Each structure stands twice: as structure tokens, then as C-alpha cells.
């Protein structure tokens, strides 16, 4: 049986990819930077140590592996990440399923453009998952403002974005990894079925969680000033501002039917996502 390395196992997408692969009884290795922490948090799994900034971890992590779910942690040096791709090629990896971003092919200045090119040039057979805006951003970097100030706080103006559930992306990743032949060389633009703005998300959230949630539409400068004062790192704030600027100017609203063409199901809608994550949006003191 083939062994699949799941990178970013402790992250948003890696967790969901691992779950989907387990349902398919695939043999997986979970790549983590801190195996002892992962063991405490996620229990017994097949862990392997992988840190892109420590090249000596590459070969042991790739031992016995023939397929990889590969995600790019935004703070990683491209030279380190590309060294890992090079080592994967040397070792004879047969398939990389790479988590990219929608429209990466048109954005030569972003890391995903360069990473896709590095994978293609390595000659390793690949599938690119060019994913739309994650719904799970709401329960991750927007969560603090939702919980503490009952508001969605991002500088996206009235722009619409193609909210995409990470669980749907993980499903396509798992299918690509376990049914490789059908997905080799494919570049999938994966989105939800609807592009909506953050006013609509706030209204839907209000209805479902039963507490008024507003969307404050800060300017990019207001957002940066506020987040800096809150103690977030400026590099991270710039990445978040950049993503929402693309939404604001109307470039994130494209939707595709790739998910339903592959799965013959509709992508997860925003209502289902909010219901499934409802407990995360509720302050702890109000849970009796
Ligand atoms: N957010 C969106 O809307 C969106 C949309 C499309 C595409 N994307 C892309 O999705 C990716 C982010 O995916 P995600 O949200 O699943 O990530 P995430 O939740 O932020 O998790 C990052 C993962 O990377 C691991 N990691 C960090 N530094 C590492 C290193 N030096 N070596 C090895 N592993 C390292 C982390 O492990 P530790 O536990 O050790 O920190 C963690 O497992 C990005 O490439 C982003 O551009 C995002």
C-alpha cells in the first residue's frame, strides 16, 4: 500500500485531509515540527518530524513515502520549501497534491505561483488545488473579534468572495491522493457555490447563532492600525490585508463547479459551515 505524507498536519487543512484519508483507510504519516506536542494534542498517530528550516529532517520524513499532501506555511522561506521539493524529486515521490490559491497562475508575485512552478519543473507528477477563500478564516483569524466584539472585522469593503469550506478542499485532496491516475496534472480551481459579501455572512451568523453579529467595514489603514495595537505582527497583518484587498476590488468573486463535477455533490454552503462551527462562535461564559 502506498504511504502518504500529510504536511501541515496540525493546521487547518492538514487536519481535515488526514481525517478524509483515514476514512479511506489510506496509510498516512503525519508531518509535524514538534512530535511530542502533537502526541499530547492529537493522540497516537504515525508522526514524523518535518521542519522546512531544518533540511536534515527532509530525508527521514520522506522515507517510505510515495505521495504527499503539500501545503505551504506562509512564513516559510521559498528556498527551504523548494529544497524540500527537490529532495522529494530525488527520492522518487510519485505524486504531490499541492494546496495553492485560486488564480495563482495569474499572480507571479505570490509564493504559490513560484511553488507551482518549482513543482512542475521538478518533474514530479502533481495535482494543484487552487482554493478559494476559506470559510474557516471566520473561526480562526476572525474569531477573536466575533467572540469579544460581536463583529466581523476585515478590510474587504462590500466585495464578494467565493467562500470555500476546507473540508471540501480536503475531500478533493484525499480523492486525488488515493485515486491518483484520475487527477494527475490537474489544476483544480476549488470554490464554494456562491460568492457573498461579509454583510451577508454577518446576517447569516446572526440568524444561526442567535446573537447580533455586525460587519464593520474598516479601511485597510484602520485595520492595520487596530491590529498592530492589538499586538499582531505586521507581516501577518499585511498578508491578511492583501487577501481582503483582492476581495474589496472584486477579484475574489469567481466561482467554479469543479467540486461538484468531481464529487457529484454541492459544495458546503455558508449556513452549514456556521451551524457546524456554531460552538466556536459562542463565548465560553454563555455556554451553561
Ligand atoms: N486562508 C485562506 O483563505 C486560503 C485560501 C487558499 C489557500 N490558502 C493557503 O493555505 C495555506 C494555509 O493552510 P492552512 O490554513 O491549513 O495552514 P495553517 O492552519 O496556518 O497551518 C500551518 C501548518 O504549517 C506548519 N508549519 C509551519 N511552519 C512550518 C515549518 N517550518 N516546517 C514544517 N511545517 C510548518 C504548522 O505546523 P506547527 O503546528 O508546527 O506550527 C501547521 O501545521 C497557505 O499556503 C495559504 O496561502 C489559504
From TrEMBL:
Residues spanning the membrane? none
Domain annotation NmrA-like: ranges: 2-271
Gene3D superfamilies named in the record: NAD(P)-binding Rossmann-like Domain, UDP-galactose 4-epimerase, domain 1
Pfam families membership? NmrA
- Protein name (database record): NAD(P)H-binding protein
Q: Which organism is it from?
A: Paenibacillus monticola
Amino acid at each position: 500500500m502506498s504511504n502518504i505524507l500529510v504536511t501541515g498536519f496540525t493546521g487547518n487543512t492538514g487536519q481535515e485531509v488526514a481525517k478524509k484519508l483515514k476514512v479511506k483507510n489510506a496509510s498516512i504519516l503525519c508531518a509535524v515540527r514538534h512530535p511530542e506536542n502533537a502526541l499530547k494534542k492529537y493522540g497516537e498517530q504515525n508522526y514524523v518530524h518535518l521542519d522546512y528550516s531544518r533540511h536534515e529532517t527532509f530525508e527521514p520524513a520522506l522515507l517510505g513515502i510515495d505521495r504527499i499532501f503539500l501545503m505551504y506555511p506562509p512564513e516559510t522561506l521559498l528556498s527551504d520549501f523548494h529544497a524540500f521539493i527537490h529532495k522529494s524529486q530525488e527520492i522518487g515521490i510519485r505524486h504531490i497534491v499541492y494546496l495553492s490559491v485560486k488564480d495563482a497562475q495569474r499572480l507571479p508575485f505570490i509564493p504559490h505561483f513560484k511553488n507551482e512552478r518549482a513543482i512542475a519543473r521538478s518533474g514530479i507528477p502533481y495535482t494543484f488545488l487552487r482554493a478559494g477563500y476559506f470559510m474557516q478564516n471566520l473561526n480562526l483569524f476572525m474569531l477573536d473579534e466575533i467572540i469579544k466584539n460581536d463583529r466581523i472585522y476585515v478590510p474587504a469593503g462590500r466585495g464578494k468572495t467565493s467562500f470555500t469550506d476546507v473540508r471540501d478542499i480536503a475531500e478533493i485532496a484525499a480523492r486525488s491522493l488515493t485515486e491518483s491516475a484520475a487527477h494527475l496534472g490537474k489544476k483544480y480551481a476549488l470554490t464554494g457555490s456562491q460568492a457573498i459579501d461579509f454583510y451577508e455572512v454577518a446576517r447569516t451568523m446572526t440568524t444561526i447563532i442567535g446573537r447580533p453579529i455586525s460587519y464593520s467595514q474598516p479601511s485597510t489603514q484602520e485595520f492595520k492600525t487596530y491590529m498592530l495595537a492589538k499586538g499582531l505582527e505586521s507581516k501577518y497583518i499585511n498578508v491578511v490585508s492583501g487577501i481582503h484587498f483582492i476581495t474589496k476590488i472584486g477579484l475574489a468573486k469567481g466561482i467554479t463547479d469543479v467540486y461538484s463535477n468531481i464529487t457529484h455533490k454541492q459544495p458546503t454552503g455558508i449556513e452549514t459551515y456556521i451551524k457546524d462551527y456554531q460552538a466556536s462562535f459562542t463565548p465560553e461564559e454563555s455556554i451553561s
